[in-house]
Design brief:
By secondary structure, this protein is mainly alpha-helical. The chain contains 3 helices and no strands. The protein has a domain of 70 residues: Helix Hairpins.
């Protein structure tokens, strides 16, 4: 098997694991971890298609990954800040207990 199908299989498994975490977990932090796994799966796809695709001198694959990592870092920072504020208010990160966001 060539490296491209192996990388795409790895990416699909990682994305599936992240999606499973998002859909089945009740803890907000674990949901953020699942979203990060899905973003990393997309990054693997960007690099795999850039590396094994037609020659590209513009480096669009690595540049897409750099922007994706920057967006993921910002998303994690904002998400964790929101989770911390909710935890201070409710003393729980269980999303089922959050039926309203009014103060």
């Amino acid at each position: 098997m060539t490296p491209l199908p192996l990388l795409l299989t790895l990416s699909a498994l990682l994305f599936t694991l992240g999606l499973f975490a998002v859909l089945t977990r009740r803890n907000a932090i674990l949901i953020l971890v699942g979203i990060e796994l899905m973003l990393n799966a997309a990054n693997i796809n960007f690099i795999a298609f850039w590396r094994y695709g037609p020659p590209d001198v513009d480096l669009t694959g690595p540049l897409s990954v750099v922007f994706s990592i920057a967006i993921a870092a910002a998303e994690a920072a904002v998400g964790l800040a929101i989770i911390l504020m909710v935890f201070r208010h409710t003393r729980s990160t269980d999303l089922n207990r959050l039926d309203s966001l009014h103060g």
